[in-house]
Design brief:
12 helices, 7-stranded parallel sheet, Rossmann fold, 354 residues, single chain, globular, alpha/beta, 3-stranded mixed sheet
Length: 354
């Protein structure tokens, strides 16, 4: 029987973080879970509906850069495990305004590490600091290059990926210097429920539902490995319980798809599942737009290490995961409609309207 844990989940009201919290609370109902989230534009307390009534759950609104708050939470809540999701995570926004990415992703991670180091040394905790990162730190692959492994040299190409690379290096250094039990995971592109509308898959779903153009960067030939968020959560579960401190594990979905092919798959599902589309077939809405600056051509994850060492493999195919995801956005209009704010519309025009 696995020991009961007391988790601090940073960024737990965001997309991946909230999915992880739902997963964890369902799988380990006796565990104590504290969610810390600043509730910036992409953090949404409604993502945690159904959890806040639990006796062993607490939500705290706050910034990971607030060292006094972190110290207080670690001590008062007797935290033994930190699952660190909090991050600025959208490449387009990092191009428009990189400062927030450096502040949250590097300075914030540093504050968490320092607080956890003091807490770990004082309390003689036996937990782990899980740092959830991205495959984008490895840079871009040519069409025939082998997939990223845990030993692929870092070559970040955007302010976002550079800030995540910096945080990865800090986490690694804290293990080697202070023997802190840190683990890094680098995942491929996630998709699923509760994802903010700026990301590719929810953007296509929502735009199709409101009859708006489906913007595709460049020639649409950029390739991503798509990981269903539920699979990601199960991988992180395995890493927290069985991963080796100081190690890095790549987590991928084994689903390499060109962007244009992915958008066409979404259009086909929309035509099938949505009876009242403003434009049908919604493929008519596909519009190629000016490419993103420094747009990485291809990402691909080699997840051999987590498979051979920890026994994890993804279980959801891209066809299965997309169908679940499209169905979720179709039935949760009340979730995404309020997110299409004026701030979001301003950002949208900056990125997609020349």
């Amino acid at each position: 029987m696995r020991e009961s844990r007391r988790l601090l989940v940073t960024g737990g009201a965001g997309f991946i973080g909230s999915n992880f919290v739902h997963y964890w609370c369902q799988r380990y109902p006796d565990n104590w879970v504290v969610v810390l989230d600043a509730l910036t534009y992409a953090g949404n307390r409604r993502n945690l509906v159904g959890l806040e009534e639990r006796e062993n759950f607490r939500f705290v609104q706050g910034d990971i850069c607030d060292r006094a708050l972190i110290d207080s939470l670690l001590q008062s809540e007797h935290i033994d495990t930190v699952a660190h999701f909090a991050a600025e995570s959208h490449v387009d926004r990092s191009i428009l305004g990189p400062e927030a990415f450096v502040q949250t992703n590097i300075v914030g991670t540093f504050a968490l590490l320092e607080a956890f180091r003091q807490h770990y040394e004082t309390c003689n905790s036996s937990g782990v600091f899980l740092h959830v990162s991205t495959d984008e730190v490895y840079g871009s692959l040519a069409p025939n290059d082998p997939a990223f492994t845990e030993t692929t040299p870092y070559a970040p190409n955007s302010p976002y990926s550079a800030s995540k690379a910096g945080s990865d290096h800090l986490v690694r250094a804290y293990h080697h210097t202070y023997k802190l039990p840190t683990i890094i995971t680098n995942c491929s592109n996630n998709y699923g429920s509760y994802q903010f509308p700026e990301k590719l898959i929810p953007l296509m779903c929502i735009n199709a539902l409101i009859g708006k153009q489906l913007p595709v960067y460049g020639d649409g030939q950029n390739v991503r490995d798509w990981l269903y968020v539920g699979d990601h959560c199960s991988a992180l579960d395995v890493v927290i319980h069985n991963g080796a401190p100081g190690e890095t594990y790549n987590i991928g979905g084994n689903n390499e798809v060109k962007n244009i092919d992915l958008v066409q798959m979404i259009c086909q599902l929309m035509d099938e599942l949505a009876p009242d589309l403003p434009v049908r077939p919604c493929e008519k809405l596909i519009t190629f737009v000016k490419d993103r600056p420094g747009h990485d051509r291809r990402y691909a994850i080699d997840a051999t290490k987590i498979k051979t060492e920890l026994g994890w493999t993804p279980s959801v195919t891209i066809a299965e995961g997309l169908r679940k995801t499209v169905a979720w956005y179709l039935t949760h209009r009340d979730w995404w409609e309020p997110l299409l704010s004026e701030e979001y519309q301003t950002y949208y025009r900056q990125v997609y309207v020349s």
